[in-house]
Specification:
The complex is a heterodimer. By secondary structure, chain A is an all-beta fold. Helix content of chain A is 0%, strand content 54%. In chain A, strands 2, 4, 5, 6, 9, 10 and 11 form a seven-stranded mixed beta sheet that branches. Chain A has a four-stranded antiparallel beta sheet with strand order 1-3-8-7, with no helix packed on it. In chain A, a hairpin with a 2-residue loop joins strand 5 and strand 6. In chain B, strands 2, 5, 6, 10, 11 and 12 form a six-stranded mixed beta sheet that branches. In chain B, strands 3-9-8-7 form a four-stranded antiparallel beta sheet, with no helix packed on it. Classes of the chains: A mainly beta, B mainly beta.
């Protein structure tokens, strides 16, 4: 298996632009998680899905953030409009059984909003 | 909310030596899971070791082992025979049924020749 695949690896965008981050989980994994990593706040859970259904989005910082999982093999995290404070590394992770298993993380997307 | 505390922001160890990274957590649950993740400069998050709270035996993976003290809510990671490739950020993480992984702020480990 190729693991969790995220794209792009790096993204630089101007403030106010729309940004879309993409994730392909490991086949057969029922859980998908989006995390954000910053120096100040560490790793924060943004949202997670179980069987393509959003379960907990309480970590989504603002209405500017939205996430979708249209099928078991694809998820997106969208920021519109983007702001400089959104600059961070965004990780996608998937898990077979959820909380009992460790997660397999993608390589992350480093987002820079200028 | 569950909290995970890593009290050592930075640590250093010489190659071939042993180092222990500390982690404490707070929960009222009895059934939960604990993990250590490694994040090298490549930024990839790599699962190092996993512990189930209801198991008394400490988990071990090659040179990595944990000291799990449930009553003290402590979960430390011991790295034996440290190697240069062990240089990384190490994150302690906690999960219980119904909640996603909650991470500590991390410990930066430098292995020196």
């Amino acid at each position: 298996d190729a693991g969790v695949i995220q794209s792009p690896r790096h993204e630089v965008t101007e403030m106010g632009q729309e940004v879309t981050l993409r994730c392909k989980p490991i086949s057969g994994h029922d859980y998908l998680f989006w995390y954000r990593q910053t120096m100040m706040r560490g790793l924060e859970l943004l949202i997670y899905f179980n069987n393509n259904v959003p379960i907990d989005d309480s970590g989504m910082p603002e209405d500017r953030f939205s996430a979708k999982m249209p099928n078991a093999s694809f998820s997106t995290l969208k920021i519109q409009p983007s702001e400089p404070r959104d600059s961070a590394v965004y990780f996608c992770a998937s898990s077979l059984r959820g909380f009992a298993d460790g997660y397999t993380f993608g390589s992350g997307t480093r987002l820079t909003v200028v | 909310a569950q909290t995970v505390t890593q009290s050592q922001p930075e640590m250093s160890v010489q190659e071939a030596e042993t180092v222990t990274l500390s982690c404490t957590y707070d929960t009222s649950e009895n059934n939960y899971y604990l993990f250590w993740y490694k994040q090298p400069p490549s930024r990839q998050m790599i699962l190092v070791i996993r512990q189930e709270a209801y198991k008394q035996q400490n988990a071990t993976e090659n040179r990595f082992s944990v000291n799990f003290q449930k009553a003290a809510k402590s979960f430390s990671l011991k790295i034996s025979d440290s190697q240069l490739g062990d240089t990384a950020m190490y994150f302690c993480a906690f999960s219980d049924p119904g909640y996603a992984l909650n991470f500590g702020k991390g410990t930066s480990l430098l292995v020196t020749p």
